[in-house]
Each structure stands twice: as C-alpha cells, then as structure tokens.
Amino acid sequence: MAFCSPPRLAACRTPIQPAHCRLPRMPAPSPTPLTHIRPDVRAMRAYHVQPATGMLKMDAMENPFRLPADLQTALGQRLGALALNRYPSDARLAELQAALARYAGLPEGHRIMLGNGSDELIALLALACARPGSGERPGVLAPLPGFVMYALSAQLQGLDFVGVPLTADFELDEPAMLAAIARHRPALTYIAYPNNPTATLWDEGAVQRIIDAVGTQGGIVVMDEAYQPFACRSWIGRLHAEPGRNAHVLLMRTLSKFGLAGVRLGYLIGPAALVNEIDKVRPPYNVNLLSCETALFALEHAPVFAAQAAELRTQRDLLIGALRQLPGIAKCWDSQANMVLVRVADASRTYEGMKTLKVLVRNVSTMHPLLSNCLRLTVGSADDNAQMLAALQASS
C-alpha cells in the first residue's frame, strides 16, 4: 500500500525566526474623515480672495458706482416687503427670465437658464457632460491664459481639460485651436468674449471658424460674455444672423459686471432643446429670493447701469492713455473689458509696493508663462484710477 510522503520542511526557503526576534506588526492607520475626501481635491488650493479691508479694491473688476440714494431707498423698501419665510416663486423667477430675455434680445427658439453667478453655470455644464462609470472622459477645451473655473470645473467632474496657449500678444492661435479640436473632440469649448485676464475681444472671423470646427465634431461652444457691458460687440448678433451655424452655441452672461457683483446672478442663453437638458442638473431654488428681486429692480432701471458702463468705458480709455505714459510700464494692452493688463519690470515687487500704499490689484504673473510680470488692473472711477496710477508709479 502506497503512502504519501509528508512535505519536507527543508523545501521552505524562509528561515523561521525565534519568537523573540520577530518584528512587531505595525497596526494599519486608523481611518479619519479626511480619508474619504478625494486625493485630487485634497491636493487642490481653495480659490483665494484677497483681504481688502482698508484698501482701494482694484483687483476684482467690480463696478465702483453704487445705486443713487433714491434707488437705494426704493430697493430697500421692496426687499423689506418680501416673504423670506417662503422659497423663491417659480412665477417670479419666470418674470426675471422674461426681463433678461428682453434686455439681452433673446433669439427665437432660445431660452434662458439662471445660475448663482457664472461659476455655478460652468459647474453645471461640466456636470451635464460628465459620464461617470462609463470609462469615457469627455474633454473641455479653452484658450490659455483664461478663466480658472473652466479647468477647475472640468477636473472636479472628471473631464479632461485641454488648454491651448494664446499668441505672445494674447490673440487666438487659430491653427492650434483647430488642431486641438480635431484631435481631442471636446464636449465643451469655452471662448471668453472678451477674455479674462487679457481683456481681449478676439477676431470675429477666427471665432466663427472655431465654432464651425466644434460643430463638425458634435461639440458645444460656450461664449462667456461676462464683460459684455464694456465690449464693442456681442456674439448674440451672430445667433440672430446665422442661427443654424450657431445652433450648438451657448451664451453665458452675468450681472456681476452689470453692477450687481454682490447679487451673484448669471444666465445662460441657448437653443431651448439644449438648455432644457442642462437645466435638469440645476438644483432647485438655486437663485434666492433677494437676488431675484434685486435683479428685476436693476433691469427696470437699466439706463442707470448703462450710464455707469459708459462712464467706465471712458475712464478705461483715459487709464490706458495714462499707463502708456508711465516709464515703469513695459507694455499696456488694449482692453474691451473693465480691466487693463500691464507688464512691469517686476510684478511681485510692484504688487507688494502698491499693497503697502493701500491699493489692491491682481498679480497674474504666475497664472501662465505668457503672463510673466503682468498685473491686472480694474477700471474704476476717475478718483480711483488716479490713486491707482500714483501707487503704480511709486511702486514700479
């Protein structure tokens, strides 16, 4: 009768250590709430808003003009009568959408979607295009340097972001844009019109050709017109003139630069069928009662805000002329927004010098290599601009 031989211990090549020589097993680290936060989120930096107490705030492209006293009083009375114990009324929000449609000149077949500023609209666009669990990573494409929220929203929703550098003078690199669109087939392509932080309003023909290229790939173009009150033209004219050619274009605006930065109200214009789909991911009551009523009040007094924008356009041209006379300014670019981009010898030194003099501007020199030693200056009132120019001259 055959028996199986017992296994040989000698076949084991791992030496057996005496118990007193064995290393203690390290316990697994205890989980904490932070372990549940995505690693890419933990690696991010939060959006930083500079402290501005006691400063002349020329870093955020805000309208420097407040409402006239009589309108302040009328608005206060109107807001004080609101039923703050109730959610915002759909009927009242519909009235706001209708008022914005009249103000903007809504093209036929288009509709408006409201957002808590443009930032929320950008996030909702990324959310609507993301495809979690599918293995697909749709892309977002935009010229660089540009608004930081395009890339950030793409990252947070798991979309790939493709940045296409502008030319050295901050114009669109049309061949590079067309090549990137053909290669990456982005779901969303952003065209800021005018651009932030360069204040550039790009060539209309080049922009239309880029829009055409995105259309052949089945993508969506978002024309970001945050600074429309200060620009010499808007893309909404192209939506009226060639609706078929621009049927995949969404137009995004905000009332922040209109003069209501504290209200946080943005709106998206686009073909109704497309906007209806994006609207499905919008949270309920995303526009609060106070913002809705303030925006309606402002639109009822739109000529007041139009006069403020006209004054800022005048001050912008005067500011650019003065900047080009300062010996410390290496370059001052043309502007179609309420900001001016300048290059100085040492952006960090100039920024800190102006801050010491209680004038706060934006140092954008680290945002992109093309912005080396650049500062972004808000266009303010005549007095604000004079104080900013004096601080800039003393600090350059």
UniProtKB/TrEMBL annotation:
It catalyses: L-histidinol phosphate + 2-oxoglutarate = 3-(imidazol-4-yl)-2-oxopropyl phosphate + L-glutamate. The keyword Amino-acid biosynthesis applies. It is an enzyme of class 2 (transferase). The modification N6-(pyridoxal phosphate)lysine is found at residue 257. Pathway: Amino-acid biosynthesis; L-histidine biosynthesis; L-histidine from 5-phospho-alpha-D-ribose 1-diphosphate: step 7/9. GO terms for biological process: L-histidine biosynthetic process. Keywords: Amino-acid biosynthesis, Aminotransferase, Histidine biosynthesis, Pyridoxal phosphate, Transferase. One of its GO terms (molecular function) is pyridoxal phosphate binding. Its cofactor is pyridoxal 5'-phosphate. Its EC number is 2.6.1.9. Pfam families: Aminotran_1_2 (PF00155). InterPro entries: Aminotransferase_I/II_large, HisP_aminotrans, PyrdxlP-dep_Trfase, PyrdxlP-dep_Trfase_major, PyrdxlP-dep_Trfase_small. Residues 81-391 form the Aminotransferase class I/classII large domain. Homodimer. PANTHER family: HISTIDINOL-PHOSPHATE AMINOTRANSFERASE (PTHR42885:SF2), HISTIDINOL-PHOSPHATE AMINOTRANSFERASE-RELATED (PTHR42885). Belongs to the class-II pyridoxal-phosphate-dependent aminotransferase family. Histidinol-phosphate aminotransferase subfamily. This is Histidinol-phosphate aminotransferase. It comes from Verminephrobacter eiseniae (strain EF01-2). The lineage of its organism: Bacteria, Pseudomonadati, Pseudomonadota, Betaproteobacteria, Burkholderiales.
